[in-house]
Amino acid sequence: MFRSLSGVNYRIWFAGALVSNIGTWMQRTAQDWIVLTQLTDHNATAVGIVMALQFGPQLLLMPWSGLIADRFDRRKLLILTQTLMGVLGLGLGLITVLGVVELWQVYLFAFALGVVSAIDAPARQTFVGELVTNENMSNAVALNSASFNGARLIGPAVAGVLTAAVGAGWVFMINAGTFAFTVLAMFLLRKSLLRPQPRASRERGQLMAGFRYVKSRPDIIVVLIVVFLVGTFGFNFAIFTSTMATVTFGLGASEFGFLSSIMAIGSVAGALMAARRAEARLRLVLVGAAAFGVFCAVAAFMPNYNLFALSLVFVGFSSLTLMTTANAYVQTTTEPAMRGRVMALYMAIFAGGTPLGAPLVGWVADEFGPRWAVGVASASGILAAIAILIWMVKYRDLRVRLRLRGAQRSRVRYAGDGLPATAAVRVVRADAARADSGRADSGGTTLTDDLETEDRETATTEIAIVEATAPR
Length: 472
Description:
mainly alpha; 16 helices
């Protein structure tokens, strides 16, 4: 589960990122709180606008930020972006402590932070490839998610207590200091152990080359569709947890911070479970999306604060299972020279959909109530699962057939993730049945099972599931 930590460079990076992530979650919680309770009268739409301004630049700058990550030294780039984010946190903290902060200023700082984050995100995501071997890439991506969500377990709770005790301004200033840990980690890395990745050439057309590459990969396209649906309409946790805590249950800052932390318990568990897997598979993205939709629906109906908090554990688990697997799949199956541009597109769709989704979900919470906002998240997960099923039917030959003629017979055929097959996995339950063995074609990418039953008098259920299992 923790095999990536065997490398000294990844250990240094992991430690610095963990401290910085804690500060980031502290600032997010305090920022949402002052907008919701100090600068407005519990206006969820204003919270949505802040989120839109903070994440929107990733969509606008996506073509250039990905190319920058592919072309320049990512370590030096991260030193620059992390320093700038620390300066912005310090500035917001100072005007808040001095008592002169206004809503438009929070909007301005959120937008500036979004611009810097747009450059930082693809470089930070792809820098992992320079810290670990290809075999440990999926594990490292999952541990990064565990770090981010482990910080989410600590940061919001600490922010809630500090906001109530000393005010949000000091929370912003503490966050500014945490960026120094990431910058220090960059300087402590052993350059001789870094694994330089191929750089994008400086010839013309490199921006469009990234789009052409994604267009040629229908599996990546369907992952991006899933990320768009869930990231835009489902991952607006700050909106529906803040409004559920304050509007629905009538509670305060500490209880709001606790909701983010309790959801992080499930998120960390989901990320660690993903770290145990040797490779990321699309079928797990499907399961994660469907589970996210179901658990959000359950959360929307919870009658009191304690049950709502408990349901968020499962929301967190399913959401991180989905997103960690999707992220790892895209990174591990993308050519190294294209990885920055592809991950920039991934992050732009994930975070850049927020300008559309966050104000809309905030409006739903204001007009129809916070429970309906959670319902929007539920619908996004179900639609994402349907999108993957449609893709599997079209590109991976997924078939489900049920015939009743004296005997009940079901057949499921699925060609897997389009990989060279080395093994066939078959699950059959039959009361009195004879099943022909599965057959693989010469390419190994299409596998089918034909099931027959001899006893026509007894109802028989036969299910055969065959999937390609070769490593990428």
